[in-house]
Amino acid sequence: MGKRGNDGKGGDSQKKKKFKVASGFLDPGTSGIYASCSRRKEHQAAQELGIFLEEKMEEYYKDEIEQLNKKTEDGADKSEKEDEKEEELSIEDQLNKELAEMKKSDKSKTKDERKKDILKFIDLNCECIIFCKTRRPIVPEDFVERIMKDLSDPDDKMKRTRYVQKLTPITNSCSASMEQLIKLTDEVLAPHFHTEAGRHDYKFAVEVSRRNFNTLERMDIINQVVSQVGKAGKYQHKVDLKNYDKLILVECFKNNIGMSVVNGDYAKKYKKYNIQKIFEDKGNKASPIGETKK
Predict the structure, then answer these.
(1) What does the pLDDT look like over 136-145, one tens digit per residue?
(2) Where is pLDDT greater, at 74 or 247?
(3) What domain count does the chain have?
(4) Please, which residues have CB within 8 angstroms of residue 204's CB and are 6 or more apart in sequence?
(5) Rounded CA gap, 41 and 63, in Å?
(6) Which H or E run contains 66?
(7) pTM to 2 decimals?
């Protein structure tokens, strides 16, 4: 029996209905990492990516995390002494007491609990995409680039993820409006394009991805970002879609616009930060976790 054609009763409309509309959302000011994954494997992808990112976080940011833990613990001790002193002097009103207790509970978290705060998955309820929110000391752009550099090592033959595919860093994000987009570009682009000590002649490109998003048109976003890079002719950066020095990634999801800047080796050397393609390029057939290629 032949395949059913697009006769108006099936076809494209039925295919589109198979994908559910995402119900999750991201707050403006959120930084982190998007990860694409196999369909219906979002939960498993989040689990394996969480373990992998935590391992890399401890490897790359060990000293910074220890310093943060020390500051937090010192602050907790100080807070406890201040609370005891206040109770001896007078009885504070109920509101201040509750605020003090909330602050104390946050500082009394264990080191493992504080690590989970640095990496926290947000349920987007979106097919084929997951998001891990990050906090200091992690800088998403640097963090993901370093991960890709390690994974591209030809001597690294063991693939640690099964379902995760492409990683996309988000330096910061804003609500979906042109006014907020301009503010976001000023913040994210400045360290890369607008420093007096840096180059003023980069070749760059803009890549926009939209999911469950129809607030702003793709070309309106691109034109605005390009305009902000040049700052009305103040900087001599030029658009080059193929041989760019830097690529500006814009990720639009529902009411949120996220942005980051990656270097020119993003596409060729690091396969657009696609873990699957990196291992395919190395000749590794993506051995499951714990297995080695025979």
Answers:
(1) 999 999 999 9
(2) 247
(3) 2
(4) 193, 229, 237, 238, 239, 240, 244, 245, 246, 247, 248
(5) 34
(6) helix 62-89
(7) 0.78
